[in-house]
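Quick one - inputs below.
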Amino acid sequence: MTPPTDTAGLTLNISAVEREAGLSKDVLRMWERRYGFPKPSRDENGERQYSAGEVAKLRAIKRLMDVGLRPGKIIRGTLDELNAMADGRIVPRREPAAPAVEREILALLTSHDAQALQNALANLLMRQGVLKFVQETLSSLNHAVGDAWMRGELAVFEEHLYTEQVQIALRTVINAFPRQSGVPKVLLTTFPGEQHGMGLLMVEALLVPEGAQCISLGVQTPIEDIRRAALAHEVEIVALSFSTAFPVRQAGDGLAALRRQLPPKIAVWAGGELTRRVRKTLPGVTLVPDLSGTLGALKAWRALPK
Amino acid sequence: MTPPTDTAGLTLNISAVEREAGLSKDVLRMWERRYGFPKPSRDENGERQYSAGEVAKLRAIKRLMDVGLRPGKIIRGTLDELNAMADGRIVPRREPAAPAVEREILALLTSHDAQALQNALANLLMRQGVLKFVQETLSSLNHAVGDAWMRGELAVFEEHLYTEQVQIALRTVINAFPRQSGVPKVLLTTFPGEQHGMGLLMVEALLVPEGAQCISLGVQTPIEDIRRAALAHEVEIVALSFSTAFPVRQAGDGLAALRRQLPPKIAVWAGGELTRRVRKTLPGVTLVPDLSGTLGALKAWRALPK
DNA sequence: CGTACATTATTGTCCTGGACAAGGGTATTC
DNA sequence: GAATACCCTTGTCCAGGACAATAATGTACG
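Output:
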């Protein structure tokens, strides 16, 4: 029927592009109708066959949309122009902190020495302490890796390796803390559709040393089950993580629904890249757009009269 | 536009059902056309609104299809009948081994004591050793949890908690082994679309004690990147994991494509529930339909003349 | 009696092209 | 300068048709 993952990268069918670029089939067809891009060739059955170049440009567009640009504005640009825009956006980086560290880690990544990478991360973690490692180093490293990936300087598998190794480092440090009781109890998870779990681990790594007790459900928990889990585990806080790619609207709706279904005394925190783009205020939901806000939010919660 | 995660679980729109049941929009519409089920009501815009009952039945159908049944045969059944079929299927269980342990873990799960669950798993692991724990206990536990979930005895969030806790236990034991060099080097990952990573951890937990060096890329690596990673890291074996839900065809095509793109001296292993349903033989691909076959495959690989 | 092959049934994915609502952007008013 | 109304952009949904790939079944042959 469909050779979903193509032989060599020659052409991809619409399902494969949906996966690779993160754009629904409907959107791919609609863009073709409206903007004339992408304009895939057709196979003998009249089915769309996307070229590798089209997929690369689609990925670049998706990435720019995830930071707020609209498709109509950028879809005419060439791949180079889009990458330049991304670079331009990067210049005012929030963490001009440690480009040396970034370069070092990126070099280890591209040299494919998993062991050395693991050691380097563990080393950084030990020297800097959890707080600095997560809030500063990891935060800027994640951006550096994401940008390098988008510019084509980093392969997907190298990014995957990075993610795995960071998660191992974070899990190790989390496990190093005693896991008994703690206050507050925090439930960590993401909404359905959100596959990125690193944010959860980063938050957990910040909260556990402060004496909080974290219960993670991993990614993609339906809202109704978040509610039930919060009640069953008698948590005081429910913390959600959203990556840039998550649809803003879905996040807003979901948070409102969750807030409605939870008893008022259970706090709802929303963090991650996406929360920087949220316009309207969500009553009863604490937005934590920056990791450094996590501990502040915890302090504020503890200061509340109980 | 679309309230994707509904207020209280009253009705879901087609996108939400796609997520919740794991059936594409096209399939949902096609079934309605062909079989008359599901027959969602329509809102004022004529858009489908699925009831909670329909979604429950859809999930049951999906689960049965994942073990080989065809929709036409089962779509007429009631939810109870479908659940009975699932129970019937379970009777000839492969591991009549330790129902006591299963009951204990399930009880801990439904009592929502994360700490006790963690302890129980760690305890089992220590007492039984990695081999027995992974091959027997986890294997039958996974089935018990999956079945309990399908029968509605276990909530989604309880299943999520189980998965998280098991992964923590596995990662801990994997980390306990020295991670330096080792032979062979094994690359672990899954194809795009396959989100379940527990199989990878289970395999890693079996291989690492045997002196193999495992490099995991996590889930969902595009085939082209698996190839590049295998070459970059100079591995001897590429091991893929497939859960039941993965489309057989996509697995077969992908494995054939991967085999074609890799040099012959790099072995390709495919494991997981799905590989039990694979009919045709895939030349150059070692099928490991059962976890207990993992160590056999490793022994066979080591016996090969190099 | 089993195995290889051909035929039919079942099932999923893709196609076109139309409709519409929600959110962002812009102009107007106070 | 802030609030409101309007338009434009954009994504998702719908219907119904087509077809290819799998599974199931039947048939011929050793």
